[in-house]
Amino acid sequence: GTWQFMAARLLVVSTPGQQPAIPDRADDLKSFFYVLVWIALRYTKHGFFKNALTDMLHATFNHHHLDPDGAAKGGDRKKVEVCFSDPFQVSRLFNVPLKEMIETLAISFAVRYEKAPKARDIAQYRE
């Protein structure tokens, strides 16, 4: 996939010696989500100053670093943005239905970055 729109899970630094993550359907949906966010911020009316938007898009979608093996890694900002209460600062979008859709999708994807519950928490929930 295109670096800028790949799911953050596929771009973040993995444990040395660990195999790279294999993309799944959720990753494909997140890629679609990132394209949607980028297009919404780039081509719809919003309350960003041009330079601020350019900086945010670059930091979110283009930033990367090289790991010790020379492979490009990144995606940390995407992961963080999805978990914010105002992901990608979409509150600045003037198109309310589009803004609400992006917020709803971000909530759905944020779950993937939460820690799994412990067995005792699951047992307590079932009681």
Question: What is the fold's blueprint, element by element?
Answer:
Blueprint: H1 8-11, H2 25-43, H3 50-62, E1 64-66, E2 72-74, H4 76-83, H5 96-110, H6 119-126
Antiparallel strand pairs: 1-2
Summarize the structure.
This protein has 127 residues and is mostly helical. The protein has helices at residues 8-11, 25-43, 50-62, 76-83, 96-110, 119-126, and strands at 64-66, 72-74.
Question: Alpha-carbon distance between the termini?
Answer: 44 Å
Proportion of residues in extended strands: under 5%
Q: Tell me the series of helices and strands, N- to C-terminal.
A: HHHEEHHH
What class would the helix/strand composition place it in? mainly alpha
Portion of residues within helices: 40-55%
Average pLDDT taken over every residue: 84
Low-confidence stretches: none
Number of helices: 6
Strand order of the largest sheet: 1-2
What is the 3D shape?
Answer: globular
- Please provide the count of β strands: 2
Biggest sheet features: 2 strands, antiparallel
* Gyration radius, rounded: 16 Å
